[in-house]
Amino acid sequence: MSNENQSWSQIEDNKPSAKKDTIGNAGQQNKPVRRKVDFVKLSSAPSHHFRPLGMFKSFDKFFVTENGKVRSAVSGDSSIVDLMKQKHNLDPQKRFAINVIDRSDGKLKVLEGPASVFRGFKEYNEKTKRNPGGSKEGADFEIDVAKKMTQNGERTFYTSKEEKRTPLTDAEKEMVSKNIYDLDEVFKETPKDKVEAFLFGRPLQQQLSQPSIIDEGNAVDDNTIDTDLNF
């Protein structure tokens, strides 16, 4: 799904859509160069500060871990979802991603995570009717990370909240125009005939035992499952 068609109401229930902004579809307006993606590592510190940019992208992603190795595949195709459920008892997880400026180092990165990571952005949109990633109307946000022991083991919880409205400076606008990531390219759907091989690293016809399921490979703690919000 292209992030051109997204609205902040999709983060949870039917809520007001964000206003459009000049940076609203930056990934499409400014053709990015292909390069290694710099992902946010939310597990690296208890608190993070970001300036979101443009609109988010939502997608379905399968995660498995086998012999300590994490694998993932992006696919919302109904035939693939049915196949993975029937053959491996594996369901995709709803994921969200957005370009951000990481205030810790000023670099442009991609923030990916479950709904709870993006809740503060959605609440800002509901409260102000502004796009939290807009060039003029956007804001800085703090995301706190807390690990807690539950009956199912250690889990990671995320809390995001607005800090202050921060229109982009001219220097930031220039950096964004030159370095914005095309989220449709970064999270492109895995080819249907390769999903199973991507996840299990074995021939498609080979029967496999079910590996344990984890939450994430790039942006959150690999050892936890975040079910803070249910979509």
Structure description:
There is one protein chain. The chain is an alpha+beta fold and 231 residues long. It has one domain: Replication Fork Single-Stranded Dna Binding Protein (Replication Fork Single-Stranded DNA Binding Protein, Alpha-Beta Complex). Helix content is 21%, strand content 29%. It has six helices and six strands. A hairpin with a 2-residue loop joins strand 1 and strand 2 (69-74). The longest helix has 14 residues, at 115-128. It is globular and about 50 Å long. It starts with 25 loop residues before the first helix and ends in a 31-residue tail after the last helix.
Mean pLDDT value: 77
Look at the structure and give the CATH class: Alpha Beta
Q: What is the C-alpha radius of gyration, as a whole number of Å?
A: 18 Å
Tell me how many strands there are: 6
CATH superfamily: Replication Fork Single-Stranded Dna Binding Protein
Overall geometry comes to globular
Question: What count of structural domains?
Answer: 1
What CATH architecture would you give?
Alpha-Beta Complex
How would a textbook summarize the main sheet?
6 strands, antiparallel
Looking at the structure, the CATH topology is Replication Fork Single-Stranded DNA Binding Protein
Strand content: 25-35%
> Count of DSSP helices?
6
State the order of secondary-structure elements, H for helix, E for strand. HEEHEEHEEHHH
Determine the fraction of residues in helical runs and give it as a percent range.
10-25%
Low-pLDDT segments: 13-29, 203-231
**Measured distance between first and last alpha carbons:** 16 Å
Structural class of the secondary structure composition?
alpha+beta
